[in-house]
Structure formats: C-alpha cells, structure tokens
Amino acid sequence: THSYSDGQGPLPTAVLNQIQDEMFNYSNSGKSIMELSHKSILARDLIDDTVERLRKSLRLDDAWDLLLLQGGASQQFVMAPLNLSKEFDKVDYVDSGYWSQQAISEARHCARNVSIIASGENQHYQALPSIDTLNSRADARYLHLCTNNTVMGTQWHQLPDSPTPLLLDASSDFLSRDIPLENVNCLYAHAQKNIGLAGVTVVAVRKRAILNNNLPAYLDYMSHITAGSSYHTPPLFSIYVTNLMLKWLEEQIGGLSSMEEINRQKAKLIYDAIDDSRLFRTHVNESDRSLMNVVFSTGNSISDEAFAMYCKGRGINTIELHPRGTGLRASLYNAITIDDVQSLVTAMHMYQLTLSS
Ligand code: PLP
C-alpha cells in the first residue's frame, strides 16, 4: 500500500482533501457534485463563481468574455481560427516546436493563408526565435504563440510588442505568472496543468475580435457566450476542481505575482543543480528556459532511465522520462512546492554520489 504525500501531480493536498470532505455532500446539498444537475442553482452559481474568479485573476474588463469549454486545448487549435478569422484572411504563427506545430496544422484546416513567420527549427527548438524577428504581416488577423512549450521546455518570458493582436496557447503556464494582455485578443488554456483536471478549457477572448462567421453552433464562441458556458452539459466536476484550485491560488499570499516568484525559485533550484552537475545537462537556451518544464538528460537513455527509477524509489514524482524519448522532464506546475523540488535536487546530488563512490 502507498500513503499519499504532496508533490504527486497537479493538485495540492489541500484541494484533494476538500474534494474528499465534500464528496457526498456538496455545499450542504446532500448530493455529490458528481450527481448535481447542471440545471440546478448550485451548478449555475459554481460556473458563475469560477468565471468571476478567472476574470479577476486575469484582470479582464467588460471588453472581454471568458468561457469554460470542453475539448481541451486541441479543440481551440481549431475554434480560435474559426472565430477570429475568415477563410481568406492572413493568420500568422510562430513555430516553437511540437504544440505550436499542432496548432499550425489544425489552423490549415480553417484558414487558407497561414504563415509561419518565425521558427526555432534550425536550433532544434532548443531556443525560441528572437523576439525582434517576429515580424507578423501588418494585415494578419492574429499572431499565434505557445507561451510555454511543454515538450521542448522553452517559455516566452516576454511577449512581443506586436502590431498584430496575439492569440496565445497558455495551456502549460496558465496562472503560473502574470501575463500582460494589452496586445492579446484571445488566450486559451486547458485546466490540467496548473488549475485542475482535464475536461475544462478556459478561453478569454475580446468581444470585438469575434467575427460573425455563421459557424456550427458548438464551434461558435457566441453560442457559449450567450449560454453562459452552459450551451451543452458542462463538465461540472472539472469546473468544481478548477474552482477549488482558484481559491487555493488566491490564498497564496500575494496572488499571481508571488506564485510567479515561487515558480522562479523552484526552477532556479533545479537549473542550478543541472548547471553545477557533471552528469546532467540541458540543451535549452538559457534565456528561453521554461519555469514549468525542465527538460534535461544525462546524455544517455539508459542512465536517464536509471535516474528516473532511482527517483521513483524515493517517492519523487516531479520527474518523468520525457514522453518523447528525449531524456528527462521535471514539471513544476503550481501545485509543486519548493520542498518537492528540493527533494528532487537532493536526489540528483545523492545519485551522483552513488555513481562516483
Ligand atoms: N498546448 C500545449 C502547450 C500542451 O502542453 C498541450 C498538451 O499537453 C496541448 C496544447 C493539448 O492539450 P489538450 O490535451 O487539452 O488538447
């Protein structure tokens, strides 16, 4: 049998405890949240409260709509171009590796004039294209960026001062830092990294950016806006967990900027350990290193695997073999504490000692 400890995944223990406490009696209804009708007042209140908290965290004014949708970020690769551009409009993308390529290939099903205006390909996506070279076309509808590339371990630490409005995939660093939205027309992020479980995806979109494109109802942002994110049966349990995560985030003293500071400290601990080590290395360009996903390696897949096993044996789950077979990845999402990262760093030191003894 296993006992539970912190740092196992994207939910803090406090949130898991609350889910357990309320499992059979959500908000004194005598029902489980999983049994609640989505037409009930409690469900409506939960959705409205979650939207309100998200609006507050992102500091959205009346010019913005905020939606809770299903279909993950993958669905937004399609829905965003369908709603923000017309078939023959120009739309621009930056290719920073795997997830941005998914977005580009999906956009090509919706728009005929998709341009990749900058790419990290010739640097094997270990560096982001220089921010000064992001020359989007002046008459493009938007410029799409993936704010944090989960697979490559790169992150935009600054957004371009683009004349073209930005469309952001913020799935893997959402609410891990404060993002200025002045140049942004639309931002989407699934919940399962920093604010809960798969099943719900957040879309923040400027009202004036939504075009009237006569889309099938489900794909049209307007259907969901008109219906207050209940155009069809909403994923109440996932929304509930996001609601708890938002409350938990608000309780972190100082809100988002302190979360960002903590995330910075967490990332520094592990990058310093890598830079000081003779065993581990990262090829990610220093100024583009992600605070969320630290991609590194021993340079040898057998010893990467051995280290991952060593960590598992010590109950450290912040690290995994990279799902694409390119070494190791430590994911430092909001729920991971400085202590969790410290345990990983200690394991890195201890492991190197066992090798050299
Ligand atoms: N965008 C980024 C940055 C991701 O990391 C992922 C998945 O991990 C996706 C999009 C796809 O998200 P989903 O599985 O919710 O469709």
| N-to-C span | 33 Å
Biggest sheet, open or closed, and with what strands and sense? 7 strands, mixed
Content-based structural category: alpha/beta
Could you say how many structural domains there are in total? 2
Give the SSE order as H and E letters. Answer: HHEHEHEEEEEEEHHHEHEEH
Percent range for β-strand residues: 15-25%
Radius of gyration: 21 Å
State the low-pLDDT regions, or none. none
* General form: globular
Please explain how this structure is put together.
- By secondary structure, this protein is an alpha/beta fold.
- The protein has two domains: 13-251, Type I PLP-dependent aspartate aminotransferase-like (Major domain) (Aspartate Aminotransferase, domain 2), CATH 3.40.640; 255-356, Aspartate Aminotransferase, domain 1.
- Helix content is 36%, strand content 15%.
- It has nine helices and twelve strands.
- It has helices at 13-22, 41-58, 72-84, 98-107, 221-226, 236-251, 255-276, 301-313, 338-356, and strands spanning 64-69, 90-95, 113-119, 143-146, 148-149, 154-155, 166-169, 184-190, 201-206, 293-296, 319-321, 328-331.
- Pyridoxal-5'-phosphate binds next to helix 3.
